[in-house]
Write a structure and sequence with these properties.
- By secondary structure, the chain is mainly alpha-helical.
- The chain has 13 helices and eight strands.
- The strands form four sheets. The protein has a two-stranded antiparallel ribbon with strand order 1-2. A two-stranded antiparallel sheet has the order 3-4. A two-stranded antiparallel ribbon has the order 5-6.
């Protein structure tokens, strides 16, 4: 039972804490997203017991020597290093070397991450020559954060600039939105023979980019020396945000699964992508990057999710629905179904889940920005 008088952000945190047990815990980027969100909430809402809980769950897959159960460098999967952001925060709180050692192994992987001929990171070893939008979120904020403490920040920022500009230049549509992925070789079935791009704009994929840009901007030192980097990332943020508000659903404030095809058959208002946009817009408004019209759009989006996509069950447990469980291109594993990137795949081919962690983590992050102003009072 969750008190209905709590803010929706706190309700979502408590629901996740209840549901994410040692038995259900998994090592992947979605669990990291939620644990990072709860850790941030613990600091903003002054909940030290939540910090203890996050540390326990985070250490379930982390050994004292810094090795991580579930991470294999040879996979070159950028999805598997997103947890480094959580370890970074826990290192700052405790100073325990196991967190630093785990991050060292993630950064070591990125030093030899396979690249396309033009220099873009492969999303995974099993996806040769392919850049997926979400790879930018999985890798670059961590690389920038790590470099800011233990390396050369400008080198890391230059790499982030290169990855973003390369990905953007190949996937951007005339309407300013980004297609899900680009295969530089053009060999994949889902890739357009001329452009190498997948065929549709998927909200969550664009959401990862918006979130990553917001997080990188927050890491920049407030000095003239880094003003050029700030201007670069702010420019991309404004371009993407401006394109997104043009296709925001007027009646609900949300965005559709296939972002720019609202009203088409079987398309639906998708929760996680909507929340990612809300988080990014509100956070970048707080930092002075985006004007108040974008915060207004973020508030409409969050309120729309609360109104249309959350509910309490008969036992007064809090839930979030209509979250795309997963979407990708090609085969996730050799034995997996082939994901063809068609319109029907995005709208009908994947489950619409309740309390999926893509949506839960994004809900908490967006709520912290909108209900609490993004920082401790």
């Amino acid at each position: 039972m969750i008190d209905k008088n709590l803010t929706k952000t706190e309700a979502a945190c408590l629901a996740f804490i209840k549901n994410y047990t040692p038995q259900t815990a998994i090592y992947n980027y979605t669990s990291s997203l939620c644990l990072e969100a709860v850790l941030k909430a613990a600091q903003i809402l002054n909940k030290p017991e939540w910090i203890v809980w996050v540390r326990e769950r985070a250490c379930q897959f982390l050994k004292e020597d810094g090795s991580v159960t579930g991470f294999e460098k040879e996979e070159y999967s950028m999805d598997k290093i997103r947890t480094g952001n959580l370890y970074f925060s826990l290192y700052n709180l405790s100073g325990e070397e196991k967190y630093k050692k785990a991050m060292d192994s993630f950064i070591d992987m990125m030093k030899s991450q396979p690249r396309t001929a033009s220099g873009g990171y492969w999303h995974k070893k099993r996806y040769p020559d392919q850049m997926w939008l979400d790879g930018f979120y999985m890798s670059e904020p961590l690389c920038v954060k790590y470099a800011g403490k233990w390396g050369d920040l400008k080198v890391a920022l230059d790499e982030a600039k290169n990855q973003l500009s390369l990905m953007y230049s190949h996937t951007v549509k005339p309407n300013g939105l980004l297609l899900h992925a680009w295969d530089e070789s053009g060999k994949m079935y889902w890739a357009d023979k001329k452009t190498g791009c997948s065929g549709y704009v998927w909200s969550r994929a664009v959401g990862w980019v918006i979130m990553a840009i917001a997080d990188i901007l927050e890491l920049l030192p407030a000095t003239d020396e880094f003003e050029g980097y700030r201007a670069f990332f702010a420019d991309y943020a404004l371009k993407l945000a401006s394109a997104l508000v043009k296709v925001q659903d007027v009646s609900t404030g949300m965005w559709y699964q296939v972002t720019d095809m609202g009203g088409y058959e079987n398309n639906f208002l998708e929760t996680s992508g909507t929340l990612m946009f809300a988080y990014g817009f509100a956070k970048m408004n707080r930092m002075g990057i985006l004007d108040n019209s974008f915060r207004d759009a973020a508030v409409r989006a969050f309120d729309g999710v609360v109104k249309f996509k959350t509910y309490y069950d008969k036992d007064e447990n809090f839930h979030i629905k209509d979250i795309c469980k997963s979407a990708g291109l090609g085969k996730a594993e050799d034995t997996s179904p082939f994901r063809d990137g068609s319109y029907n795949y995005y709208t009908l081919g994947e489950e619409r889940a309740v309390d999926n962690m893509h949506g839960v983590g994004s809900f908490i992050l967006a709520g912290l920005e909108i209900e609490y102003g993004g920082k401790k009072a």
